[in-house]
Amino acid sequence: xxxxxxxxxxxxxxxxxxxxxxxxxxxxxxxxxxxxxxxxxxxxxxxxxxxxxxxxxxxxxxxxxxxxxxxxxxxxxxxxxxxxxxxxxxxxxxxxxxxxxxxxxxxxxxxxxxxxxxxxxxxxxxxxxxxxxxxxxxxxxxxxxxxxxxxxxxxxxxxxxxxxxxxxxxxxxxxxxxxxxxxxxxxxxxxxxxxxxxxxxxxxxxxxxxxxxxxxxxxxxxxxxxxxxxxxxxxxxxxxxxxxxxxxxxxxxxxxxxxxxxxxxxxxxxxxxxxxxxxxxx
Amino acid sequence: xxxxxxxxxxxxxxxxxxxxxxxxxxxxxxxxxxxxxxxxxxxxxxxxxxxxxxxxxxxxxxxxxxxxxxxxxxxxxxxxxxxxxxxxxxxxxxxxxxxxxxxxxxxxxxxxxxxxxxxxxxxxxxxxxxxxxxxxxxxxxxxxxxxxxxxxxxxxxxxxxxxxxxxxxxxxxxxxxxxxxxxxxxxxxxxxxxxxxxxxxxxxxxxxxxxxxxxxxxxxxxxxxxxxxxxxxxxxxxxxxxxxxxxxxxxxxxxxxxxxxxxxxxxxxxxxxxxxxxxxxxxxxxxxxxxxxxxxxxxxxxxxxxxxxxxxxxxxxxxxxxxxxxxxxxxxxxxxxxxxxxxxxxxxxxxxxxxxxxxxxxxxxxxxxxxxxxxxxxxxxxxxxxxxxxxxxxxxxxxxxxxxxxxxxxxxxxxxxxxxxxxxxxxxxxxxxxxxxxxxxxxxxxxxxxxxxxxxxxxxxxxxxxxxxxxxxxxxxxxxxxxxxxxxxxxxxxxxxxxxxxxxxxxxxxxxxxxxxxxxxxxxxxxxxxxxxxxxxxxxxxxxxxxxxxxxxxxxxxxxxxxxxxxxxxxxxxxxxxxxxxxxxxxxxxxxxxxxxxxxxxxxxxxxxxxxxxxxxxxxxxxxxxxxxxxxxxxxxxxxxxxxxxxxxxxxxxxxxxxxxxxxxxxxxxxxxxxxxxxxxxxxxxxxxxxxxxxx
Lengths: 282, 696
Description:
The complex is a heterodimer of chains A (282) and B (696).
Chain A: E1 13-22, E2 25-35, E3 40-44, H1 51-59, E4 66-71, E5 74-75, H2 81-87, E6 89-91, H3 104-113, H4 126-143, H5 158-170, E7 176-180, H6 188-199, E8 206-210, H7 214-220, E9 223-228, E10 231-237, H8 238-243, H9 245-263, H10 272-281
Parallel strand pairs in A: 3-8, 3-9, 6-7, 7-8
Antiparallel strand pairs in A: 1-2, 1-4, 4-5, 9-10
Helix pairs in contact in A: 3-4, 3-5, 4-5
Chain B: H1 2-6, H2 8-35, H3 42-56, H4 61-86, H5 94-116, E1 132-135, E2 138-141, H6 142-164, H7 166-176, H8 178-183, H9 188-210, H10 220-235, H11 240-260, H12 265-284, H13 301-335, H14 346-351, H15 360-383, H16 386-411, H17 420-435, H18 441-464, H19 469-488, H20 490-493, E3 499-500, H21 517-540, H22 542-552, H23 554-559, H24 564-590, E4 592-593, H25 600-613, H26 618-635, H27 643-657, H28 671-678
Antiparallel strand pairs in B: 1-2, 3-4
Helix pairs in contact in B: 2-6, 2-9, 2-10, 2-11, 3-4, 3-5, 3-9, 3-10, 4-9, 5-27, 6-7, 10-11, 10-12, 11-12, 12-19, 13-15, 13-21, 15-21, 16-21, 16-24, 16-25, 16-26, 17-18, 17-24, 18-19, 18-24, 21-24, 25-26, 26-27
């Protein structure tokens, strides 16, 4: 299973010449990528390489200036985020995004709401809502948060928030899961659990993983794309990509310090500089 | 050439007017951009300068100089005081500060009238300038030419300070990163105070010099504030040149525009303001238009709405009909044997938010304040005299408006100053219906609600794209546009005179019109109870959670496939309908309707009532509205002429003493209480969540 060959079936994700500019800065520059169904793909690169921008483009929170995005053969370049979720794209956020005022269970009920077969009428029919809660509980059990179901999500620790964010992404039964630095700020034990959860996902779910932890990438990803300054440096099987001399130069040299920083629980955004530039311009 | 000739004087006037606004708006922009204070008392700072200058003006240069020094100093001192007042609120977001400054503006305005009298003060310019010069064949007041020169000098000086001096560098640094500034040895507090004092000085100096153009009077502060808000919004916060351009444009609209197209000019400013805000939020927010089909299939919102309505209408009607009974039943049920919650009726489970974890006792506790209030309200006619009872009726009407503001501000996260617009639509619809002979109460209520809902459907797309302070400004523009329309459409609204003399409302179809205060009050109470119960049912249902999720973690909701824009639009329409019902009630209770009943002040009152109540608390909003009407009409009647002062004091006290609103006083954790306690952990982009939600 490689990223570049999908002879018979349509690839689950097909990016063609994707470009996103913020003013004079090109955050994502002519990126093309084909992922077969069930791919385990990682996107790595130094800070500011455009990894999160790429995820945002795929998830729909950002729009490309050029290029097309196709999901399972359907063009979704201009499709809104919410609609893409309905088509099977789910994501986690770099800063875990939880609804602090609602209970952990309600968070997952809302996350799975639009994907539940009985979603119609759930907003006012209690029996429907209870059925939603049952499937939400299953998702919480999968990430080990079932005991905290009744707690307000704002009370959770950082690691628990990551797990809740992941459960919220999985509650949509995605066929393409976008993970934005899921291991950032996690303890080693939490990372172990994360690997177990992700490793146990059915093979129908394709994963794109943006991650600084090389161990997580090596453990999970079968293929890797290395981005540098918005361009694809190399795409290939994990081992080859990580061993590529240019990757050592472009990535390892700058990323070594960054990995240490992440462990201190201060996940830093790759595109933060990018966003700042955009804001300064607007 | 003739056209140019005829409008030469207004055009030059426009430049003077524009420069005046530029100096004032620069202060407002400085305060908001660098100190983060949305200063709704900025117009009052101008008025301080204008009154001082007018009082000290005696037709000599010396009088002008003394006036300039005194007016500038007084306004600067007021600005410094404002800084001291707002610093403790800095962590509570823009809304708390805006409400505080509005309260201070009410107090300041009242004190100014106290000292200087309610009439417009005459201003005597130095005699040398009290003449006309000939300008390109036109006679033109010398003072205005001189003012243009002085304003240019003032603006140039301000720009020089800001861009070329160390002080200016510190101020600009403070706008970007106060913490970084602190590490370089500047106290952010000192910068904050300095910035607000400088903003006050600018407004004060503009007030002294501009007094012959916008003179000191009762409406000065409001006019100046509104116009400079428009300038700041049009010009943006980034560039002084854009602000200057916007100021001149606004000045020209106010002078040249009024002389060229008097019918259009009132709309032009606020329409432009709304357009700029909407366009700007369009660029910052991801575009979602036309793609809200979601899993429901089809992206046509109207078709979707129709399908949705036909599917759920029967259910909702049943809910409405039994709603009132349900509340009473619930109280009884709470005392009966503990029914397992699984076998409770769906309505009752709805009341508890569809959750099964709360016991009946807990639910009873939650509803207890609402029930206690209901009992009190039912008993009111036997307790109060006729006049006070009619005040209570007004409070109910304003209470519905406050609840609709609370829904948008607290639940949907859209702080609004424009709910008076659908409120006005409902009110004028009712008055016109009555005038045409349709006096049956249910007809009036339903028509008012539908008209207001349609209005909110139209304005909704402009509101729901933006977040935070931008919403405040867009809704303010909508409210002002509605006010302008009310003043123009005299055949429907009676213009500034308002409407009076229409037949009283009948409680039901047929029968006599209600003239007794107690009859009217009971009608108002019945309508209010039904509206509140429907609102509470919807908010406590999972639909309320959808709104909470949208407010707390919008990106997560979108990523999970929720059509966030659709939820917000529906909330906006529902809140609009509720405001329309409130407007209809107000007309029935008052039996007259004037533009002041639906003006900016009422919008601010409603926002305060919602915030006093705790933003997500329906009962809190009702009590807040009651408190405001009680203060404005009942307490103030025993101290005539000090209504604004008392209301201002109420604003200030509410903002300081009730950081989480009345709802925060309760020990139990209602739907709002828990969130309020945790609100400080909300993501930083929620800096403008309502004051009631942000615990210090």
